[in-house]
Amino acid sequence: MKIKKISVRKLFGVFDHDIPINKKGGITIIIGENGLGKTIVLEMVEALFTGKYFYFNSIAFEKLILEFTDGVKWELNKEEQKDDFPIISLKQINKNGSSYKPYRLLNYQPDDLISLARRISRHIPHIRMVGPRMWEDRRTGEIFHADELVYRFGDYLPFGVRLDDKEKPKWFTDKHDQINVSLIETQRLISLQDREEKSHEKTVEKYSSQLSRIIKSSLTESTELSSKLDRTYPNRLIERLKTSSNVSDKVLNTELARLEKKRETLDAVGLIEIEKDSNLLEIENPQEVIKDVLMLYVEDSFKKIEIFDTIARKIGLLLEIINKRFKHKRFYVEKESGFVFRSTIIKDAHGEFQKIPVTKLSSGEQNELVLFYELLFKSSPNSFILIDEPEVSLHISWQNCFIEDLKEIAELNNLEVLIATHSPDIIANNWDLKVELKGLE
Predict the structure, then answer these.
(1) Going edge to edge, which strands form the sheet with 15-20?
(2) What DSSP element (H or E) covers 318?
(3) What is the tens place of the pLDDT at every residue in 73-101?
(4) How far is CA 16 from the centre of its chain?
(5) Which is deepest, 83, 86, 117, 328, by most CB within 10 Å?
């Protein structure tokens, strides 16, 4: 079950937009003039599925409608009130036209919200109260109402109080839990939490370390399986030798060659290291017992490295995408260092091609690396990915191949992707994927 269509009514009080999701290619591209709400539509969908319900208070709209592939509709309504916060409610309309009682996503009294905002100001030093219902971020000078403050900073509080912790209806959780939505924002190089904590670690450094940990975790899993297989190998071999071997010379040598090729692939993406002289040789006229020994060895070896199948495909695609873009440098992945870049033209004092720190990549290179890493490694299968302005800091030639690379990622991770862009170069030859938002004619 996936999202089939997204509609919004009276966005900013005037615009009605309908966005059918392309089911054939899995990629939909929103275009339109500035001010029509392309980014806002992405943020509204993300807010609904990630529990950021306060976001809807800050947007002028009447209704957000989601149609699903099973025929069900969700209608998110915003009802303005004169002297109070607006009511945000969600209604499910079933395929037969029946509906459930609307579910109020934000069910609070103004005094409750103000009380929570005061707790935030006590826990976060740079937030101070400057009026009966107003707070200031002393670092930036921004002024917040109570609901804005809770939306902005509520997720980072140690006490974990949320205003939407009431029991949710089953129709809501059943549908909500099947849809995994993720927004990749224009500002990708420093995450929101990093900015709030004034962290100087760039996203490229964080993701490099993260990939190193992922590889090490896979290696640990492989080592544990190897130990188990090695312990049971003698007994399993004896059992196999009790029966007649049906392994032909051709099958054995084919499997040995396939195993060697797979090991070379894993070595190329930085997951394992193979010695130069470790190639498995073709066996000529082996005895039956040797066939059995070698075949069990091959079977065990495949089991040990199958653990790397998914991560190897992801790393391999990331290397392919980045290396065809970046000029005068080569991208590698290593289990200890994560991302490794080396110049292809400048050598160091030892005659080795000079290593380039990831933080010394250009902003465009970092944006591209972060974007594709998030798509490959931070999106779970069957997710609905929202990408805002992927063209940011990208050369035109990179923009031209973006959709084709995205198609490979979408197929690998089984993703559906909704993109908001101003760039015809991002669209390239994929105009059949576009949905144009219209203003008032």
Answers:
(1) 15-20, 3-11, 63-68, 73-79, 87-93, 103-104
(2) helix 309-323
(3) 999 999 877 666 678 899 999 999 899 98
(4) 29
(5) 117
CB 359 within 8 A of CB 392: no
> Token pair of 330, please?
């080569």
Q: pLDDT tens-digit profile of 44-81?
A: 999 999 888 878 887 899 999 999 999 999 999 998 77
198: confidence class by pLDDT, cuts 50, 70, 90: very low
Q: Which residues pair with 31 in a beta bridge?
A: 436
Instruction: Please determine, for residue 433, whether its predicted confidence score (pLDDT) is greater than 80.
Output: yes
The pairing of strands 3-11 and 15-20 is antiparallel
Which helix (DSSP H) or strand (DSSP E) does residue 235 occupy? helix 203-241
**What string of DSSP letters covers 186-227?**
S--SS-HHHHHTT----HHHHHHHHHHHHHHHHHHHHHHHHH
Please name the residues in contact with 221: beta carbons below 8 A apart, sequence gap of 6 or more.
307
pLDDT tier for residue 192 given thresholds of 50, 70 and 90:
very low
What does R_g of the chain's alpha carbons equal in angstroms? 27
On whether the pTM is more than 0.85, the answer is no
Q: Which helix (H) or strand (E) holds 118?
A: helix 110-123
